[in-house]
Specification:
By secondary structure, this protein is mainly α. About 75% of the residues lie in helices and about 0% in strands. It has a domain of about 80 residues: Alpha Horseshoe (Serine Threonine Protein Phosphatase 5, Tetratricopeptide repeat).
């Protein structure tokens, strides 16, 4: 599962009441009893997703969709399951079903936008992010801004990417993913001093990964701070010895 997919699943886990409170336009008429049963199983499925019990989650989400194929929450949850399984076409279908039922759902908009961005459908992705950001009831606009920034970076628009990522941090100053993306972006844009600053903010939250340690090594090397670069390389080798990032540091050291 990629980091972006994990983020989308995390977004799904926060959404229950927002979906249920929106006006619905069903694909087909559903009786009150079937609609209620779908809601119960959808919420169970989301609960199992939260606990990492993916088989139980999928089982309940499928039962929800058996009762009501258009249920927005069940479709968003099933989309997250499909993404985790690498079934992006099915995930897209479920996100679009959710939006047919609840056209203004910001979770579906954000998650579908991220999925489309990964496929380089940049224009539609940014349209979806913009709709989610403009929703005054969406309390996770930081996620939409972050995904928009990543999508701009993938499209080669570094200025717009940085602007959106910084807006994500304005809403959530401790947002690890936005900090990591800005660390990566500023390093690639030859601004290692800013990279260091973003990595320090991550370190203050005890957020560390093979990727942050590689960026630390690269930024400190670019700044001429060999002692700090070596310290990052040593931590990377000790904690993530089999990672691709550690192999990259070893390569850079040989070539340096």
């Amino acid at each position: 599962m990629t980091a972006r997919t994990g983020l989308r699943i995390a977004g799904v886990l926060a959404l229950a009441l927002l979906v249920g409170g929106c006006a619905a336009t069903a694909d087909r008429p559903v009786s009150g009893e079937r609609e209620e049963a779908a809601e119960v199983h959808a919420e169970l499925g989301i609960g199992y997703l939260r606990e990492g019990e993916f088989e139980q989650a999928e089982r309940n989400l499928r039962r929800a969709l058996d009762y009501d194929p258009g249920d927005a929450l069940a479709n968003i949850g099933m989309a997250a399951v499909m993404e985790r399984k690498g079934e992006s076409a099915q995930a897209e279908d479920h996100y679009r079903r959710a939006l047919r039922r609840d056209s203004g759902n910001p979770f579906a908009q954000t998650n579908l936008g991220a999925l489309l961005c990964g496929r380089e459908d940049f224009d539609e992705a940014q349209e979806l992010f913009a709709k989610a950001i403009d929703n005054p009831d969406y309390d996770r606009r930081d996620i939409a801004y972050m995904n928009s920034g990543v999508c701009h970076a993938d499209a080669g628009d570094i200025e717009s990417a940085e602007r959106q990522l910084r807006r994500a941090l304005e809403l959530n100053p401790q947002y690890p993913r936005a900090l990591l993306e800005l660390a990566r972006l500023t390093y690639e844009d030859d601004r290692p001093m800013q990279t260091r600053a973003f990595l320090q903010r991550l370190d203050s939250q005890n957020v560390e990964s093979a990727e942050t340690l590689l960026l630390c090594y690269q930024a400190e090397t670019a700044l001429g701070n060999r002692r700090a670069a070596n310290a990052c390389a040593e931590r990377l080798n000790r904690q993530y010895p089999d990672s691709a990032e550690n192999n990259e540091v070893r390569r850079l050291e040989r070539e340096g």
